[in-house]
Amino acid sequence: MKDKRKELAHDKAEKPHTGGHLLRAVVGLLVGGTILGGSAFAAWHFWNTRPLTRPMSKARPPLQVEVIPLQPIDFAVRVPSQGRVKARAVSGIVPEVTGRIVKIAADFREGGSFEPSQPLVWLDPTNAIHAIAEANATVRQLQAKLDLERINRSSYTNAVTLAQAELRKTEAALELAHARQAAAIASLKLLGTFDNSTPLARHEPQVKESTATVQSAAAELAKALADLKQRPSRMEAELQAQIDAAGARLSRAQTDLARTIIRAPSFDGRIVEKSADVGQHVSTSTTLARAIAVDYAEVRLPISRSLLAQIEMPSISDSTNSGPVVDIHLPTSDSNSPPDWTGRIERTEARVDRSSQQHFLIARVNAPFAQPPFLHEGLFVRARIHGRVHTGVFEIPRVAVRRGGEILLVDQENRLRRVRMAEALWRDERKILIREVIQDNKRRPLRAGERLCISNVDYAPEGELVVPNRDGKPLPRSRPKGQKRPGKAHFSKQ
Question: Does an H or E element contain 111, and which?
């Protein structure tokens, strides 16, 4: 009984909840139908009340395009670059001796000019003068000793001469003794008393005495010759060596005296920095000034590999006057104005920049201080290098070049023809030089008189009929018939 009561109570609670769901569904259907009906009515109304468009005219005037006739030209390439001026030689003026500055030249100052080997600074010469006097005295003293030694050597020579004379005298006496002995022996034999004769009668003591005298004279001569050969020559050589050393000291002292006058380097130049003055004590490690050469200056110009091919570079063995001409412009001058300076490419550096792979050309400018504006060291300049001359080329303005290197030509029937440029012989920010174009996948040379379209007609189809103008005026040709293409071309200035 309890279970039945619970079920009846549950059924009574669910009946009102089910009725609410049905009401919401009916209301949703009514709202959706109303929205759909209103949308359909609005669409029908706008469709029936739309404005009618006017029909397009069947004929449109052809496009007006600006053209320029192409003519072959000879074009001299000017390769742009830039760099800094540097002196061809930078030298420090350093003394070669120690001393005190007693005088300087009027040109020894910043900006002063000098000639090769011109005296610039004078040092106190007292020490050098004293060294010369001392060396001179030493040389004279040693020379006197050498002269005395040579006199002694002559006495040894005289002794040899006397010994030689004495030897000859004793040899003659010996010969005489032998002759007398032979005569005495012959007399004794003639008388028959030889066997009983005494040694004195046979002259034997006389011969022995003469022989001993000859031997003694020979010994004296040998001794005199030995004394002459050994002792005197050794002493003379020692003295001569001392004289040579003293002469070297004298020569060095004279050189030091000459070096007390400090001269300019062996080139025409200018003083760019001075660091010494009168009264200052300087040594061989003191830099008195820094000087630069002004006979010619150099400009280091970076050039890419592609632009280097446009320049005819001289070989290493050629003279410095055979390189291409370089026009130098100062930063304040216009690139289109005449160059401030003119130089020549002298050489190419032996290596390239590792990061940019650029080559560096060295331009030589003679006499950079001959006339204003001067080419000071470190000055930044712009340069235009005279390159190759391309003959029979056509100049294409940059404004006429489309995407992908495409250009538009207007044929004899006044129709646009799209062609692509072949390889460019030269290009800059304003123009491109070519000789050939690619049309229908075939290369052909450009011809004189062909008309180049420089108007902005990128979306014109191939074969579009146009009216070619020159400087805004139609060319004196028959006007082409119209073509069904709306719109006008926008012209670009040349």
Answer: none
Query: CATH number for the domain including 254?
Result: 1.10.287.620
Asked if residue 262 lies in contact with residue 93, where contact means CB atoms within 8 angstroms, the answer is yes
Indicate whether 20 belongs to any domain: yes
Name the DSSP class of 322: G
- Give residue-wise pLDDT tens across range 330-379: 988 876 788 899 999 999 988 998 998 999 999 999 999 988 889 999 99
Four-CA torsion 247, 252, 254, 256, nearest 10 degrees? -170
Same domain for 31 and 137?
A: no
Among 334, 359, 389, the domain-final residue is 389
CA angle 414, 420, 425 (to 5 degrees): 120
Tell me the one-letter amino acid at 376. H
Task: Tell me the residue type at 164.
Answer: Q
Check whether residue 307 and residue 414 sit in a common domain.
no
> Is 6 within a domain?
yes
User: Mean pLDDT score of the chain, rounded to an integer?
Assistant: 83
Q: Using alpha carbons only, how large is the chain's radius of gyration in Å?
A: 59
Amino acid sitting at position 351: R
Residues 6+ apart with CB under 8 A from 287: 92, 93, 94, 275
Mean of pLDDT values over 238-245: 88
Q: Say if 75 falls within a structural domain.
A: no
Q: Which amino acid is at 405?
A: G
Residue environment code for 162-190, b if the CB has 16+ CB neighbours within 10 A, otherwise e:
ebbebbeebeebbeebeeebeebbeebee
The answer to whether the beta carbons of residues 122 and 101 sit under 8 Å apart is: yes
Neighbours of 68 (CB within 10 A): 18
- Say if residue 147 is in the same domain as residue 223: yes
Q: How many domains does the chain have?
A: 5
CA-wise closest residue to 81 among 296, 297, 308 = 308
Tell me the pTM: 0.61
Separation of alpha carbons 29 and 32, rounded Å: 5
pLDDT band at 232 (very low <50, low <70, confident <90, very high): low
Length of the chain: 494
- The Cα–Cα gap between 220 and 224 comes to 6
Evaluate whether residue 190 is within a structural domain: yes
The CATH number of the domain where 398 resides is what?
Answer: 2.40.420
d(CA 195, CA 442): 146
Residue 277: give the domain boundaries.
91-121+268-292
Using CA of residue 166, residue 172, residue 177, residue 180, what is the dihedral sign? negative
Q: What residues have CB less than 8 Å from 283, skipping those under 6 apart?
A: 95, 98
DSSP state of 368: T
pLDDT digits (tens, 9 = 90+) for 173-208: 888 888 888 887 888 777 777 777 788 777 788 888
Q: How does DSSP classify residue 22?
A: H
Instruction: Return d(Cα 48, Cα 43) in angstroms, integer.
Output: 9
CA distance 189 to 203: 14
